Amino acid sequence: MCTxxxxxxxxxxxxxxxxxxxxxxxxxAMATPMIGHLDPQFIQIMDGLKDMLRRLFRTENDxxxxxxxxxxxxxxxxxxxxxxxxxxxLVCVSGVxxxxxxxxxxxxxxxxxxxxxxxxxxIDPGQVKQALETCSPKIVAIVHAETSTGVxxxxxxxxxxxxxxxxxxxxxxxxxxxxxxxxVDDWGIDAVYxxxxxxxxxxxxxxxxxxxxxxxxxxxxxxxxxxxxxxxxSMVRNxxxxxxxAYHHTAPITxxxxxxxxxxxVFEEGLEARFARHQRTHELLRDGLEELGxxxxxxxxxxxxxxxxxxxxxxxxxxxxxxxxxxxxxIEVGGGLGDFAGKVWRIGxxxxxxxxxxxxxxxxxxxxxxx
Length: 371
What we know:
There is one protein chain. 39% of the residues lie in helices and 15% in strands. With 371 residues, the chain is α/β, with parallel strands linked by helices. The chain has two domains: 106 residues, Aspartate Aminotransferase, domain 1 (Alpha-Beta Complex), CATH 3.90.1150.10; 243 residues, Type I PLP-dependent aspartate aminotransferase-like (Major domain) (Aspartate Aminotransferase, domain 2, 3-Layer(aba) Sandwich), CATH 3.40.640.10. The strands form four sheets. The chain has a seven-stranded mixed sheet with strand order 2-10-9-8-5-3-4, sandwiched between helices. Strand 6 and strand 7 form a beta hairpin. Helix 5 runs parallel beside helix 6. The longest helix has 21 residues.
């Protein structure tokens, strides 16, 4: 006799650094009947998904698809396929996820070169240029939207510097994609990865990626196999492209359904309207938080609209206040990471969690807690 209790978690308003609230249409799509991962109908769904991802990334890259794992696997996919032992890689670090890329670079056996910026500030293009005068890295990696600090990194100038040095540009867009503009082709991004659970508002479990022809050529010129069998794109790409799809792994079919429907919702709203909604809702939250004594970590011109990193007002206890928000109001916000632990909240306004109603609920709850 089964004694395990039925799943019945309390519904929450997800306003942390991810995941975000999921639209009912996406949940409904996950109940679509199961079919095989090589079924012609599923291949057609995969092709539609690739087309929508190209539109979202604003790219013509043929090798654009969704890795069958979360955003961290997208990070690893890009690095393990582009780097071989003894390659050089320059990683721009201004928070947790730059550090994570650095760790993977070393696990690939590549030589790591770091350009660091204080947490809460963007990478200075001048630092990148200066570093590239002393090395010749195969790739330069940078985070577009640093989830641990709330910084939006300008990329256009850094991209020009990187390509002038002959390197490939690799960009993390896990938090930015679907909530602010990402222009892979216009910005000369050679490898990019993201996640489904933030501004796209699908459940976590897939990682959209895209590779430029230069990046594909670099992968084809490898002398050694990537250290990961599962993420080896010389095999995975044959499942996602070509007239005859070659079996590599059993795709998470239900997750593909979810991402497909979430992207349909993105394009029904329209990218420009979606970006404007994230900015407008961020400004509403900003005004309310500043009235309550919260201070933003990041200068206005570099702030992420979908991830708001704020210093706590004097006298507000981090853990106690977040616990009350969760237990009394069913609102989840994120605490600080690393240097910001206990001092900073990370408040997400992502996808379906980016509404005026979410902001007003949070502000009303905070006024009661702080009274």
